[in-house]
Structures
1.
Amino acid sequence: MTLTIALTKGRTETQVLPLLAAAGIHCEAIQAKSRRLIFADDPSFHFILVKAPDVLTYLNHGTVDIGIVGSDILAEQGHRQFDMLDLNTGRCRFILASTADFDPKQTKRKLIATKYPHIAQQYFQKQGEDVEIIKIEGSVELAPLTGMADAIVDITETGTTLRENHLKVFAELASVSTHLVVNRLALKQKRTEIYQLTQSLQKVRPQEASL
């Protein structure tokens, strides 16, 4: 049976392709792609390259059997599929950051800018705080610098962008990494193939390392 996989294009794609190759999957066509988005060269594995927020959409509609996407998307969107394996790639952190004069204990209602409103809201609810969330699609670092927000919730890998914009990390919310997620119906219909792929990737994925 053929497994159809939605792979997040960009950084995730670059980091995951060596794992897929090490697991014995032919990835040469994807690595040599120009503007192609669908790869059906291998009869056992078909790939489509999509933006991260769309991976779960394809998965939930049964268009693909497997999605490879960051846990930030899984946490923000929520999903009803099976989170099968942490690939231990694309590791970064959710953080609360702002300018140096930000006081996280201030009692006034905070304005928080983020690309991840659900995750930010959940975090502050756990802290017992009522905050106003401002959804931003672009560079969230601008929000506290321009005074539009008190702080931001975002993901960071090295912290370089934060430092370059003179922002300070005040809290770490959660870790982020790339996961392999399986459509529940596909898991029933293609159980053997999916478990074989999962076991192969489990053997070649990097060892978990703290950030």
2.
Amino acid sequence: MTDPGTGSIGTDDHPDAASALREIGFWLERSRAETPRVRAYRRAADVIDGLDQAERDDHRARQSWAELPGIGPKTAKVVIEAESGRLPETLARLRSEAVPLATGGAELRQALRGDLHVHSDWSDGGSPLAETMITASDLGHEYCAITDHSPRLKVARGLSAERLREQIGVVGDLRRRLAPFRILQGIEVDILSDGSLDQEKGLLAELDVVVASVHSELRADSESMTHRMVAAIANPRVNVLGHCTGRLITGGRGTRPESVFDAEVVFEACRQFNTAVEINSRPERRDPPSRLMQLAYDMGCLFSIDTDAHAPGQLDFLSYGCERAAKVGIEPERIINTWPAERLLQWCNP
């Protein structure tokens, strides 16, 4: 793969048709292409995977892939090229056009073992859980946490306790399929206005990792927001404070100013209660801002560099966060997702 070069994506010159279609989707998502365009390739991959051997042989002999529902002229061309043992032209072009996402932080990126903030189509992500985790494995991750939203965030199809329990069962089955790659069961839980967490306490205790984030009342006054955040940070089930300012600096959703809070009080709580400050790698967030990242570092906080990915191709956004962390001089040991899985899990659930 072009960036950082540790996984299997971008290395196979003779991928099968479904793999080629999915890798095209990856590169398009990585470049922030529109979701409907990407879904056409992923949908075609699902169609190919659903064929039995006799059906596949028949379509290969007749070159009739475009007859299949969900496969159009562009995706059929990819399938024909891959089925003939060639690297599809579209995939070759996307690989050649791919450039490193960041110019710094390469050593830190190599030190990361996984990602602790990722979404699937169980909430507002664009792809199935299995595809997201397979891509994480293909990128060279040792582990990845699935952290779909909690129920109050209805616009994001947040998971009720019942749906979260259902997801836990699905993750258990998928873990066996993808081992030794580790799937960590997590959640991005809303911090409610009083600082409580938007999920059943007992259910949170069953999870591997909990990211807590503010998604509502972002324009609250500093005192209210500070108390709210500190109360959540002090909860022993919170491991990571997600995108702490809530800002948006670019992108299709427009811009949004930073929430106001007493950063010294919040980061001291993170240090005292052993909660990592997330370095959110999404280009439209870049959260926390550099001055707050520096403050958290100077105060002795731990960090987690995460993508907040909502599509498999966005799992490569880690490079953006690593570049920013390297500019501050954050050492790998201070970043919890450089740790081996067992150490991380012991820290998350002491």
3.
Amino acid sequence: MSVHGLLLAAGAGTRMGGPKALVHDTDGSWLRRAAAVLRDGGCDDVTVVLGAGAGRARDLLADEQAGVVVAEDWAEGMGASLRAGLAALAGGDADAAVVTLVDLPDLTAEVLARLLATGADRATLARAAYDGVPGHPVVLGRDHWGGVRDTATGDRGARDYLAGREVRLVECGDLATGADRDTPAPHTPDPTAP
């Protein structure tokens, strides 16, 4: 089976003070780190969906082994990014997409590897859980991509599609928190400065 990583990194990050694709912390670029997690965790290929700050973000990815898609309608929310990413993958041969977000700074390759170890094929719906709470990454088998694209609106992403289906939860709370970051850390005056 072929698994393709899909990193959603298009938002403006208004509460963060700038696009999250441009955020750096003491461990480096969130964008580069998230792309590496997908690759190191077991994805055969990685595609990054950009929007706000796409030019600068693309520069950050210059040395990464990742494709780039720009969601022109990124301002509509995560749903627009997810639609753009899945549409880009539809022309390839991936059996499943592993979708994650750029603003999960404690996500590790171990989380992804555990999630993928449970299986990923064209019919799969699975997601990481943190202390029983569903989170990211999410595995979407190719058979579901059309339905996800049809229902992905606003900032809900695949939530509505997944709500009515059996989704395998894979507990990963011992590996990460799964918490997203919407605001800069108190000690980081400019989170988008390299």
